[in-house]
Amino acid sequence: MKIVLILVPLMLILVALGLLLFSWAVKNGQYDDLDGPAHRILYDDDKDMIPDEAKTEKKETASSEARPEADDSQSESKS
C-alpha cells in the first residue's frame, strides 16, 4: 500500500511534465504543417473558387471562323 502513495504523486508529476512539454511544443510551432501548403496548391479546385460573374466563356467562334477560310483557300488551290 505504501507503493501507491509513492506512485500516485510520481504519476501526477509525470503527467504535468508531459502537459507542459506539449504546450511548449505547440506554442513554438513544433506541430506546424510545413508541407501542406506546398501540396495544396497542386489540387485543382479553381472551379469552385471563381465567382460566376468573373467566369468567361471559351471563344470557339474565333477558331471556327478561321477554319473555313483555311478550307476555302485549300479548295481554291485544288481547282
From TrEMBL:
It comes from Marinobacter persicus. Residues 45-79 are annotated as: Disordered. Coiled coil: none annotated. This is Cbb3-type cytochrome oxidase maturation protein. Pfam families: FixS. It comes from the Bacteria. InterPro entries: Cyt_oxidase_maturation_cbb3 (IPR004714). The lineage of its organism: Bacteria, Pseudomonadati, Pseudomonadota, Gammaproteobacteria, Pseudomonadales.
